[in-house]
Amino acid sequence: MHDEGQDFAPGDERAFFAETQPGKGQGLAARSPLGSGGEEHYHGHRDRLRLRFREGGDRALADYELLELLLFRLIPRRDTKPIAKALLARFGSLTEVLGAPAHLLTEVKGVGDSVATDLKLVAAVAHRMLKGDLKGRQVLASWSSVIDYCRAAMAFETREQFRVLFLDKKNALIADEVQQTGTVDHTPVYPREVVKRALELSATALILVHNHPSGDPTPSRADIEMTKLIVDTARPLGITVHDHIIIGKDGHASLKGLKLI
Fold it and tell me: In CATH, what class is 138-254?
């Protein structure tokens, strides 16, 4: 007997959760890892979660239930609540689960390469949506959207990234580019290259952004000095640096808000 959709590639974690294939003399009850009636139990649970989501949206579900609902689609024929709770216990929040590197996701029992890739796809779609919210809008008038976008893009990276939001004369986003990727606590930044790229894009303003993988967004002395150097390099060419935002898992810091530039 062969179930539709049960062809799993070697190493696909979904095979781990597939029901045991029945042998000679085995019935459907023997196939279920939960025993007789087990399938009906979690299938009923899935139906109830889907109904709550349809009627009340995401506000009707806890984080682990939203994650569980997503995992229904990725890991069929299995109770995914323990996996959802294990992911949240490991990473701390739904945002951190989606922001975690794929290789760390696969360290959670029940999550293999396929599920990790699908979770990262969901994160990428959410990131693209946030970026779409900024395109063509006056960035300074949508500051919360800027922070949300930067957090989604960088807060959970394991290495420092230095990126630049290039703006036109109306402060609308022209481009968002990662200029450098460094180590866990350092990224080399070249002010002349930043300004050169701004001139190539005809940008008249910049927002500098980088992350602290430690989670603490407090600016270092090197962060402050580097920012001032870029400001001083850009100013004579008519390019304004609006801010330098530091993103961490524990929040964010604005050098302009802290009156450091």
Answer: alpha beta
